[in-house]
Amino acid sequence: MKNLLKFLLGFLIFVSACVDAPTESPSDFTPAPTSRIALVLNEGLFQRNNATLTYYEIDSNRAFTDFFERRVGRRLGDTGNDIAQYGGKIYIVVNVSSTIEVLEAHTFNSLGTVLLFNGTQPRQPRHIAFYGRNAFVSCFDGTVAVIDTASLSVTRNIQVGSYPEGVAVQNGKLYVANSGGLNFPNYDSTISIIDLNSLTEIKRLTLRINPTAVAADRYGKVYVISNGNYSTVPMRLMVIDSGRDTLKKIYDFDASRIAIHDSLAFIASNNSVKLLDIKNDRMLNANLIAPSTFQILYGISIDKARRELYCADAKNYVVSGEMKVFDFNGQFKRSFQTGLIPSKTIFVR
User: Fold this and answer.
1) pLDDT tens figures, 110-141
2) Span 234-249, pLDDT tens digits
3) CB 314 within 8 A of CB 296
4) Which one is predicted more confidently, 217 or 35?
5) DSSP state of 71
6) Domains (ranges, CATH) in the chain?
7) Is residue 224 classed exposed, middle or buried when 0-12, 13-18 and 19+ CB atoms within 10 A define those classes?
8) How many Å apart are CA 314 and CA 26, to the nearest integer?
9) Contacts of 98 (CB under 8 A, 6+ apart)
10) CA proximity to 245, closest of 271, 214, 272, 222
């Protein structure tokens, strides 16, 4: 649904020649081999094959767009949806292309591409999580693909609910948000709970409609964002007790993104950022970063080593985005240009 809306918005505002984000020439690209690096995944527009990676040298404050294409020699694909590092590998989930691109984390060389198809039908992967030697990828065909991280081969597909989105590991289980997002107005409202030893679904927990983002904390809780129906049913943040697998709490404020570090949760809410003490269930700052700071706040990521917050501003979805960096007190530190529709950032080295 959100990808379709972005595509329609882009079509109405700009002709196709105006959509692609500007890039530097290859001669300008000289990354420092020992610098601490942030990689920003830029979604690109639906069915435009223009997802990109922005390579950002934190120490020198230099950013380079189209990094994947320059490093690997081909385009990343259509609609980048998630990125994560696990061990010495970086995994990039490309939704419409139905691929997982895998890079070596120190050289950024390509280690291969995992194709996620059911025969000729694309499974449309969405989000990725890890446990043991396996990667778990939610797919829009109602499955979770299990990928062996050593061989990069799909070993199993686990049936879950309709149009699954976010995934997170907690207490030896995988929590999968079944959004039903493309079944509007008949959204799903369940969380599939998969035992990570038997690789089977052991429970399907019913919550509010259209659950999307999922995150786990260090205290045995799982946080789920329900997107509602975008009109009469508001977005809400829910908490699951993973010991009993029951709904523990629903917060009474809008929430669209969540990023957790230790006892702190940074929550995107109505284009602002809230700060929540999740250990003591206490709101520390309901307006840590004001909504006027962003045109469209589209993603939140945490650099744990530097205790910095990376907030992705998608602008109007049709021009290059911007990453704005803050400390944990909400003080602005710096910014840099990204590609089209930045969402998630990972930190390597």
Assistant:
1) 999 999 999 999 999 999 999 999 999 999 99
2) 999 999 999 999 999 9
3) yes
4) 217
5) H
6) 80-159 (2.40.10.480)
7) buried
8) 25
9) 115, 116, 117, 122, 123, 124, 125
10) 222
